[in-house]
Design a protein that fits this description.
Elements: H1 17-20, H2 26-33, H3 36-44, H4 58-70, H5 75-80
Amino acid sequence: MRPKQKDSQPMLFASKLEQILNDRHPLYRLAKTIDRSEFDNIFGKLYDPGFGRPAKPTRLMVGLHYFKYTYNLSDEAVVER
């Protein structure tokens, strides 16, 4: 069993995701321009926290639908990618 790492100690070889991604990629640029809180405000009204399974994050659901309709994919193909 590996020892737990303290939160205040940075990981030696860890990189932030933003340092790894290509900031000139169209999807990266799109993600930076979208106000995600607006999706939470609009779609949040449609969810009932006391009914059914816990909801997935709004950002995930909007992103999956974006890929589905932009690239004309089936639900299964979106999940595979």
